[in-house]
Amino acid sequence: MGVLDGYRVVDLSIAMAGPLAAMRLGDLGADVVKVEPVTGEWQRHAPAGGATGNRVNASFLSLNRNKRSLAVNLKSDEGREVVHRLAATADVFLQNYRPGVAERLGMDYDTISAVNPGIVYVSMSGYGESGPYTSRPGQDLLLQAMSGAMLSTGRDGDPPAPAGTYAVDAITAYSAFEGALAALLHRERTGEGQRVSVNMLDAAIAVQMQELSVFTVGGVPQRRGREPHGHTYIRAPYGVFATKDGYLALGMPRLDTLAVALDLPELAAMDGDDDGHTRRDEITALVAARLPGRTTAEWLEICARHDLWAGPVYGYADLVADPQVKHNGSFVTYDHPTEGTVTTPGFPYGLSAAPPSVRRGAPLVGEHTRELMDELGYPAGRTAELVAKGVLTCED
């Protein structure tokens, strides 16, 4: 029997981060009901690396085990009623729609919690549910670029390189998984449901606890050396490209649209799903040759106008100063008893009823040994004996 046996999860998410989070709950025994459109979830029709499978492609298969599928049209009153009834039987409700979509579909927290006041409602987004970047596409490559992490690898002077995995998607998935479990524990103790908010930007920042703390606390700048410090499954163009004054992250644009935006008619005749893989080097070379003609800001404006997925490549200094990061409160500042005032990455999720907080900084070796031994019922003399024998260490 799984640890979550008897719990039900309603999963309205698409792509990777949401489905992976829901799958992890299913792996622990939860009954996960995947609510998808009648034509199937997006990932069914966008096989990673062209691995189409027989009826289920590899990418969808990899993210959706331990689930049952409910195919329903949420744009109809009847479809919404079905899902509302399902939600009334659930423990967790998870969605990763763009901001505003859940409200339009009647799948927002206020609506679902009215149906089921005890629900743990997990809302996932790219950059947060408010602030200057809510309309930006929350895509893995773009968040990798913005997180500052790309400039921690590679050789000075070489283009920043993405990770060889969908790192931010995975990190966000585990943040949602963790937040859902925390909220379920809170409900077990209090009977109270709540909203859990997770966004990819904060998750990508929080996972760089060591690197960003070296920058923010230690004051060590982010430098790449002369030698490298050390996706083939995504259709071209996909990566970071040099511009006139920096770099641009570009993720899976439609080739016909990109042909217009970049004035590259050669791309218009190509098929994204086929040529995007088989002629990857040719497409990449065409785009790489074009982008140095304009600045990053100019290309970002052009890409936004054509609804292409593009974003800037940040270093840590850019990241810390970014308005969305400041709006989100992605970093926390507090006083440490020996290190003074420090600023470090905060939390990858928010809990509306029981928000995370910094209650104490990193402890010194054995700082709380005596306190804990007291709580466990050990006499002071026995504690002292164990310290003398080297079994315990106390900071005093």
UniProtKB/TrEMBL annotation:
Organism: Nonomuraea cypriaca
GO molecular function: CoA-transferase activity
Any Pfam family the entry gives: CoA_transf_3
Protein name as it appears in the record: CoA transferase
Transmembrane is among the record's keywords: no
InterPro entries hit by this protein: CoA-transferase_III_domain, CoA-Trfase_fam_III, CoA-Trfase_III_dom3_sf, CoA-Trfase_III_dom_1_sf
Key words of the record: Transferase
Top-rank lineage group of the source organism: Bacteria
